[in-house]
Design a protein that fits this description.
This protein is mainly alpha-helical. The protein contains 4 helices and 3 strands.
């Protein structure tokens, strides 16, 4: 299999036997690694930050649920640890969102 791209980075894959029949002169040959980079670009900083925020939100919701459950069943012994974890998650989220504002 040989890979080619046109001026617009459109990727074409041709079998060795089909290259002579179908390859256009303006296409340039590219490696499999370059094809992977073009088709699966690395996530941007913004995308990574959004993913981290979503994960933090999920952890915050989960911890809120644990706190509610502990209060409901009267398990006061775990509340300080859960509250500390909750505050830490909120601080992480605040620090991450503050970075957006700067």
């Amino acid at each position: 299999m040989k890979y080619f791209k046109d001026r617009n980075n459109q990727i074409y894959a041709l079998d060795e036997k089909d290259v002579a029949d179908f390859k256009k002169p303006e296409w340039s040959e590219v490696s499999k690694d370059e094809v992977d980079r073009l088709l699966n670009p690395a996530p941007s900083e913004e995308q990574l930050k959004q993913k981290e925020l979503a994960e933090l939100d999920e952890q915050i919701k989960e911890t809120e649920g644990y706190i509610r459950h502990a209060i409901l069943i009267g398990n006061d012994s775990v509340l300080p640890e859960l509250r500390e974890e909750y505050k830490e998650l909120l601080t992480q989220k605040e620090n991450l969102t503050k970075g957006d504002e700067q």
